[in-house]
Amino acid sequence: MQTAAIKTMVDLNQVKGAIAAKMDSAGFTSWIAPLQFDVCDDTLVLTAQNQFSADFIGAVHKNVLTDVANQFGLGLKIAVRGTAVSASVANDNNIQSYTPATETNTHTNTLNAFDSFVCCDENAFVLSACKKIAAGTVSFSPLFIYGVAGCGKSLLMDCIENAAAGRVIKMSGGQFVSEFTRALHDRTIFAFKDFCRNCDTFILDDVQSLAGKRATCAEFAQLVMDLRAAGKNVVLTANVAPGNLNGFDRRTQSLLASGLVADVMGPNENVRRVMLMRAGVSANTAAEIASHISGDGHLVAGVAMKIKTYAELMGENVTMDVAQHLLSDTLQKSKTPIAMVKMMCEKLGVAYDAVCGRGRSRAIVLARQIMMVVLKSATNLSLSEIGCVCGDRDHATVVYAIAQIEKLKKSDLVLAAQINQLIAECK
Fold it and tell me: Who has the most CB within 10 Å: 140, 197, 340, 395?
């Protein structure tokens, strides 16, 4: 009897290996590895923890599983724990349960939550889209919002969370990676899948944090497809547009771009002035400070907090003279060409070292050429000086880059608009 038990165990391990050889590693790790394997009456019995998992595996992976079972002369049965078929299985692990490491915040379910976002004309469209998706199911899910750090993406996510009706799940990209990894380690992956899908609105902030993590990206893409098929709302944010996300395969990039893609502009001078006035800064002082700080929402919030704290501790109003001394470390200095290049690297989603290095990938070359065109239009630098700023390129390289971009602008209106926006921000 002991020999027979060992033989069965070896056979099951061989079966698992044969299945793994026919599937991609991410799919096997996410869906097949957590199943309970057994052989009952010449049938390979695969027991899932819940009906959702059983249905999904049956719909997506049944052909592969059937072929492997036939190789061993077995039939195939996909069962759910608790049914009569799985009652005879020796492994009696407990039913999976999953509890997030960070509890979901309670929200107020009121559209007044959007009052905290100071909107400029350029952001009116994305703000309207956020309000629409918070009000109920929409036809443009997923809503993908992108922009540089400090433009207000996370604030909009908080507004949607507070305004949306029903159950809302909001995670950062880092939290999703951590929770998915923990679920795999604790063998509660099916419960984690159910947790993420059991909502009316799913929000993931900083999608770029998933870059390069194949299993996590595969699970995330399947989650987006399942939520959209179920009529649920999906809201995503990143620092670049879907097509510029590094570390994601083309299939995932196209999925993220299949809904509504909208960009968020950083706070302009008027928005910065309103943000400072809301913090208690006088109108004249706020207007003066707003004209001397950059369009980074995080920086503006920090300046407002510093002024407000100073006024509370010192018991006096902050004049511009006091503000100049108090904010000497943050008041905007004149824009240098290198600062412009670094700003454009962040906008275009490329690394500064790569642009100024020897990188020849298509994305890097295109970004470098765009920067040369922007510097030519926004500054008085000579072509040789532009080449030096962009990694010691020679005069001929800059001339060629400008000619190439001018050709592309004639057929690519999106690229032309992006370049015009960069020029305006660098002037």
Answer: 340
Q: ω before 34 within 30° of 0 (cis)? A: no
Amino acid at position 131, single letter: K
Please say if the pLDDT value at position 104 is more than 70: no
* Contact in structure between 209 and 172 (CB atoms under 8 Å): yes
Same domain, 144 and 230: yes
Only one residue has tokens 């809302």, namely 168
Closest CA to 52 of 175, 156, 177, 193: 193
Provide the β-strand partners of residue 233: 201
The span from the CA of 75 to the CA of 119, in Å, is 61
Interval 334-352: pLDDT, tens: 567 888 888 888 888 888 8
Token readout for 304 is 């407002």
In which region does residue 136 sit, left (phi positive, over 0), alpha (psi from -120 to 50) or beta (all else)?
left
The C-alpha atoms of residue 10 and residue 80 are separated, in whole angstroms, by 24
Quick count: other Cβ atoms within 10 Å of Cβ 309? Answer: 12
Q: How far out from the chain centre does Cα 158 lie?
A: 15
Looking at the structure, tell me whether residues 62 and 135 fall in a common domain. Answer: no
How are beta strands 233-238 and 75-80 bridged, if at all? unpaired
**8 A C-beta contact, residue 244 and residue 362:** no
**Main-chain dihedrals φ then ψ at residue 182, nearest 5 degrees:** -65, -40
> Do 236 and 179 fall within a single domain?
yes
Question: Phi-psi category of 187—alpha, beta or left, where left has phi over 0 and alpha has psi -120 to 50?
Answer: left
Q: Is the dihedral of CA 42, 48, 51, 54 positive or negative?
A: negative
Residue 192: burial class (beta carbons within 10 Å; 0-12, 13-18, 19+): buried
SS3 199: coil
Do residues 129 and 262 make contact, with C-beta atoms less than 8 angstroms apart?
yes
pTM over 0.85: no
Token pair listed for 182: 């923990």
- Mean of pLDDT values over 257-264: 91
Rg (Cα) of the chain, in Å, rounded? 27
For 422, the domain range is 337-426
Structural domain count of the chain: 4
Backbone dihedral angles phi then psi of residue 359, each to the nearest 5 degrees:
-60, 135
